[in-house]
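I'm curious: can you give me some protein's one-letter sequence along with its backbone structure tokens because I've never seen that pairing?
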Amino acid sequence: MNIVFTKGSGKHDLMEVFQGSGAPQRVECPKQGIIPHDMVHFAVESTLQARGFLGRVRDGEAAGFRMAAEADSDAVERLVEVIQGDAWSGGATPADDMIAMYQLTCAARQCPALALDAAAVDAVRACMADLSARWAGLPVGGQLELSL
């Protein structure tokens, strides 16, 4: 599955998902001051080999803002939220604190947490840093293509 993010000029960026010969699925991504939310999904899912939103789309579900609850992808969504929150605040939260926040978030939402350690958090952060640099270097209308 190929994913193309296009940097928009207004309040949204665009994600297009290409699978096979069919028409791409398109999702408008609200700008949030860092990389698009679904690009954070890519960082988490590709780095940890976890099945979240993008994995579900790859497996045949429609790319939409609402999906039925599913334990594995719910756990990934909670981690994406923690990683995204850390990025918004500068990306310097100690890994152990992020893991604790992630576990607390999962417990509050009654979903199982992925097994994480500091090395996993660091690997996701490294992917985020790479994606962030590539995204920041694009002009409006520029595209970043990723494969999952």
Q: What stands out?
A: Helices lie at 37-48, 53-58, 71-88, 95-109, 118-136. The mean pLDDT is 93. The radius of gyration is 15 Å. The chain has one domain: 2-147.
